[in-house]
Amino acid sequence: MTIAREWAAFCRTTASAALPASVEARARLCVADHLHAAMHGARSDTGKLLRRYLGWEANPHSGAVAAESAALYAGAISAVHEIDDVHQDTSLHPGSVVVAAAMAAAAEVDAPGARLLAGVAAGYEVAVRLSIAAGHRHYHYFHATATCGTVGAVAAAATVFDLDEDATAHAIGMAATSASGLWEGINDEAVMIKHLHPGLAAERGVRAAKLARLGLQAARFSIEGDKGFLAALAQPGTHAAGEAPSRGDLAAILVDGLGERWAILRNIFKRYPFCLGCFEPLEGLRHILSAPPRSASAIAAVLVETSPPTAWLVGQPDPHDEFQAKFSAPYALALVLAGHDVERVPLPAALLADPEVRRWISVIRVQPNREFGRRRARVTVTLKDGSPVSADQPFRNLDDAGAWARFSRACTGYLGDRGAILERRVDACSGLAGMTELMPLVNAAIGR
Q: Which of 20, 156, 422, 437 has the most CB atoms less than 10 A away?
């Protein structure tokens, strides 16, 4: 069997069988986390721009919306504040793509809540496995959320639409050939393109599933073929030293243990509204300030050492807008030193111009260290007496209770008394007869 065919069989099984309790619970929380991010992002410039593009501002609440448009919008707005989830095993934000596609597809056909959750679980599985298989060979040039996310989105949509195995395999092939999303400029000059990446991926995934449902066909070996996704978009080289997996290695990553080891269970809910590369530096600085308790006023300078790719990604020394600031470890650490709540969502844009924050940014430096892996950072502060203090701390993800509490606060903040109803319906999603019980509240929450 081809990879696409094996994934298609998995999607069919997932669509028709009950999810394990732990997987269902995590899928519900992934929906909640996505909606949390989308509610905040809907009020952004990106949200306003997309509503104008889609014609929603001129004609609000105009009735049914095509699933492609709904997926584009929800995927993009959920990425604005860099608070959308990420995966433990790969630098991929699956929720902004997979949940957006699954919910858009489910709304279009009024699918039951259990089918929505099945689509979410299947989409995470496919997107994460493909991203792990593609590795840094791919990620060095391509934003995996946009590329691997497109294939995860089609798995989610095909599962929700209840496509048969043949149509699902063709849908996966269509998604693979349409996947795109380059890194160039998306951490400084073109950050809004990064918002668009998951939206476009979700849109393409839904479109591929709908075309396959009508009978459009795609290449059988779209993933593993000599001119397929991995051959074209995950080429070895000096940018990914030591990565040269065999076909057998790749096949094991892509299909072994499907339905047994669920990728969604290793998902991370982000504590801070920044690129994940800022998380270890934040933990290092917070550790230095807390153990033993130490005043920021005693600090003269801060050095962050991290891997070269991470230093490139979050080393922005002088962010000029709130979007660039999401990729600036100096800004994130400056907020801590200036006494601000770095976990607040959304962070007030005015903080970027705060004189105390700007003063701290000027004394924080990010330096690449080739001995460090991607998930490591050492923070060294130089005290005013000249002595150094260092910390090398792992990131902390938000636990399930924290993620639910954050979602609850956003529901109340944006919907008032109706927020509690949205929260309850997401929590009871597996028992909903159809999306008409959920989507009116979702649409009100995300500006639709």
A: 156
Distances, alpha carbon 112 to alpha carbons 68, 115, 300, 318, 420, in Å: 19, 5, 58, 48, 21
CA distance 155 to 264: 14
Those residues whose C-beta lies under 8 Å from the C-beta of residue 213, and which sit 6 or more positions away, are 161, 163, 167, 171
- Report the CATH number of the 3-270+399-445 domain: 1.10.4100.10
Distance (Å, rounded) from C-alpha 22 to C-alpha 15?
16
Per domain, the residue ranges of the chain are 3-270+399-445, 276-391
Q: Give CA–CA dist 103/199, Å, rounded.
A: 13
Question: Buried (b) or exposed (e) across 33-70, using 16+ Cβ within 10 A?
Answer: bbbbbbbbbbbbebbeebbeebebeeeeeeeebebbbb
Of 46, 16, 19, nearest in space to 31 by CA:
19
Domain 276-391 has CATH 3.30.1330.120: yes
93 token code pair: 């934000």
pTM to 2 decimal places = 0.97
Cβ neighbourhood burial of 182 (10 Å; 0-12, 13-18, 19+): middle
For residue 298, what pLDDT is reported? 96
**336-395 tens-digit pLDDT:** 999 999 999 999 999 999 999 999 999 999 999 999 988 999 999 999 999 999 999 999
